[in-house]
């Protein structure tokens, strides 16, 4: 079972929004307002193991394309665009690679590259909290899985101040500058919803990052944007550079004064403009 939400313009161009890790289908209200103004039908869903979607242990990044295609079929949608932020970035690229006859364009924002990729130092520039997690994942998977479940329990019960402390080492100054009460509340609700059944979604996202993705970036032929902030401590900018260098064509945006969270707040209206243009005249 996959749990889905829709908002924006119900008669608009269909665009899938793929959430981060951890996360949930919930759509950020300013993104919804922007979608409505631009005649975009914005669609979110819980990846397996998050929120109301059934877990699928061993899923790959590429498996997301099958989820999105199934949801589009159920909603009667033939052609659509997709964007994903952070843990949703690689899944957005999977849709572009594996659904070329249906995806009109895709945008990856602050997305990870394959962690075992040749020519990539995946951990340099990463904040301490994520650095600790990925080192543990790469060296002691049993201990890492236990920590994921503990982290999920803590995040479900945490206050906004406690969540802030958990992620303090990952927040650059520019990210701190956009942490409005509205945004903090949204992340808190989204995290609680995504992890309400435990840490399976977060676990399987992490495993899919370090295992083969199930597609090659070089195979992508649909229009793709890659966005990354140079102040990103969650996912260092080297990931975005590595991805863009391996795409046949990439509309690359490396922003010197953006971080991880600030990109989510400020870049989506520009992404919506670009994706909407790929559907042709309104």
Q: Determine the N-to-C terminus distance.
A: 34 Å
CATH class wording: Alpha Beta
Radius of gyration: 17 Å
Number of E strands: 7
Question: Could you characterize the architecture of this molecule?
Answer:
- The chain has 282 residues and is α/β, with parallel strands linked by helices.
- The protein is built from twelve helices and seven strands.
- The radius of gyration is 17 Å and the shape is globular.
- It has a single domain, classed as 3-Layer(aba) Sandwich (Rossmann fold).
- Helix 2 crosses helix 3 and helix 4 packs antiparallel against helix 5.
- Strands 1-3-2-4-5-6-7 form a seven-stranded mixed β-sheet, with helices on both faces.
Provide tags for this entry:
single chain, 282 residues, alpha/beta, Rossmann fold, 7-stranded mixed β-sheet, 12 helices, 44% helix
Q: What is the secondary structure topology, with strand pairs?
A:
Blueprint: E1 4-8, E2 13-18, H1 29-37, E3 40-45, H2 63-75, E4 80-85, H3 89-98, E5 103-109, H4 128-139, H5 141-157, H6 160-166, H7 173-177, H8 181-194, H9 200-210, E6 224-229, H10 237-246, E7 251-255, H11 261-266, H12 268-277
Helix pairs in contact: 2-3, 4-5
Please sum up the structure shown.
The chain is an alpha/beta fold and 282 residues long. Helix content is 44%, strand content 15%.
């Amino acid at each position: 079972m996959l749990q889905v939400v829709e908002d924006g313009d119900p008669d608009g161009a269909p665009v899938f929004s793929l959430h981060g890790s951890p996360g949930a289908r919930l759509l950020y209200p300013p993104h919804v307002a922007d979608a409505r103004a631009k005649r975009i039908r914005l669609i979110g869903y819980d990846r397996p193991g998050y929120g109301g979607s059934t877990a699928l242990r061993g899923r790959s990044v590429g498996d997301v394309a099958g989820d999105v295609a199934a949801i589009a079929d159920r909603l009667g949608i033939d052609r659509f665009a997709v964007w994903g932020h952070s843990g949703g970035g690689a899944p957005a690229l999977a849709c572009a690679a594996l659904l070329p006859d249906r995806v009109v364009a895709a945008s990856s924002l602050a997305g990870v590259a394959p962690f075992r990729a040749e020519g990539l130092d995946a951990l340099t520039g990463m904040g301490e909290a994520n650095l600790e997690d990925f080192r543990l994942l790469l060296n002691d998977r049993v201990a890492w899985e236990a920590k994921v479940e503990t982290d999920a329990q803590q995040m479900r019960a945490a206050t906004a101040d406690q969540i802030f402390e958990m992620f303090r080492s990952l927040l650059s100054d520019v990210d701190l500058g956009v942490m409005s009460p509205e945004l903090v509340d949204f992340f808190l609700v989204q995290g609680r919803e995504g992890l309400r059944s435990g840490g399976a979604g977060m676990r399987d996202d992490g495993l899919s990052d370090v295992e083969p993705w199930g597609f090659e970036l070089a195979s992508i032929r649909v229009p793709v944007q890659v966005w990354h902030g140079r102040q990103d401590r969650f996912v260092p900018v080297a990931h975005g550079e590595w991805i863009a260098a391996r795409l046949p064509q990439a509309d690359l945006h490396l922003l010197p004064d953006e971080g991880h969270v600030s990109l989510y707040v400020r870049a989506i209206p520009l992404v919506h403009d670009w994706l909407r243009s790929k559907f042709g005249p309104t």
